[in-house]
Amino acid sequence: MIPFLFYMAAAIALVSTVLALTRSNAAHALIYLIISLLAVAVVFFLLGAPFAAALEIVIYAGAIMVLFVFVIMMLNLGEEGDQRERGWLEPGVWIVPAILAAALMIETVAVISMTEGMTSGEMVSAKAVGIKLFGPYVLAVEIASMLLLAGLVGAYHVGRRLSERRRGGIS
Amino acid sequence: MSVGATIVFSLVLLLAIVGGAAVLTWFERRLLGIWQDRYGPNRLGPFGILQVLADMLKLLTKHDWVPPFSDKVVFIFAPTAIVVAMMLGFAVVPFSPELYILDINIGLLFFLGMTSLAVYSVLLGGLASNNKYALLGGLRSAAQMVSYEVFMGLSLMGVVMLTGSFSLRDIVEAQRDGWYCIPQALGLYVFIIAGIAESHRLPFDLPEAEHELTAGFHTEYGGMKFTMFMLGEYCGLILLSCMITTLFFGGWLGPVLPPIVWFCLKTFFFICFFILLRAAIPRPRYDQLMSLGWKVMLPLTLINLVATGAIALWMQGA
Hints:
The structure holds 2 protein chains of 2 kinds.
Chain A (H helix, E strand, L loop, with lengths): L1 H21 L3 H21 L3 H26 L2 H11 L6 H20 L11 H8 L4 H22 L2 H7 L3
Chain B lengths: L2 H33 L15 H10 L11 H18 L17 H11 L1 H10 L3 H32 L4 H6 L11 H14 L24 H26 L10 H22 L5 H32 L1
């Protein structure tokens, strides 16, 4: 039962990702991308990482993709945008990415066939993830937090109106 | 529970929620009527309860119109998303020690994930309608819900810290010595407000504010598809009340009466509380809502988070 569910979720993820790449309507492409993320969350869950699966849904599907849809709504491109996108998606543009992706796939298959038993199948609890994050990987967490703070300060600076910035005496 | 019993219970629960949401439409109007010193719908059947049936007939027999200028597939898909997400959210709610569908160790995160997926319904509905008012309503809801999701998640982390688990059954069991509504009063306060904003009910129904956006994201919707939006909203209200009961008011715990009765009573109390809020508080302006979120709610949750962490550590050391 579990292998069947796994392959089904994996197939959904693959198909929806391909559809997300090839849609000319940005909103439709985003919906396929959201479905793909949900399918990946199911894959995580089946591999024994329920915490990663939950974060995938809450953060990626629930927050980041909402912001993507938000931007699409703000731009409100409509039919015009679809046509421009269709112009960009000519068959010719797929050649180089296809070659690169094929090379990457051969490499991945080679790596998978060399190692045995990719996952232990054990459940990784939220506590285990936390201990790892604030144990061996604490440096990565700190660097990520600094990066996010820099992003926040930058967004605040851009978000303030130009006149306010002049009055504030910043450059 | 065995697999068969779980399936039967899921079906019963599904019917109970849909039925509850339908009755709630009438109950809300009656209760609002009492609080506003008028009658409300009291003509059809005893206390006017058959009004639910009449409304249902009206909605079912309406012309199911899809605007020709809309993005048709997305337009039809959008209202289903909120209902499906909210129904799935009920899977992790523990109604009594034996009555639950799913007890996974990420139960709380599952609930948060489902509520965040419900946002798409409003967003895609607004986008697919291809209408200015709908688009503005969708935009507002996107900003409102993404912001309030942050505080909603953070406000619950105090509860998780005190319990040491994301499992909702563990959280209820940990409240045998005292409900979390007292040590986590700040968390409860933020969760209630964020919950109303998340389910975009009055007073935070700015995505559909009819005084300025006709009807916001569901301007173009009618008949069954409009009903789905409303069903999702009422399911969200019930789910929110269930979660407040579970997380802050001891779930099924209580003396004398059987656990399920306690759970239903507490949930019912919070549903009435939310209806009272609707009757009592006027709608804020959109910028007031957003600045309340980021300038009051966020600092409050952070203070709660740090203080709870410190006390939890201190208790552990002692």
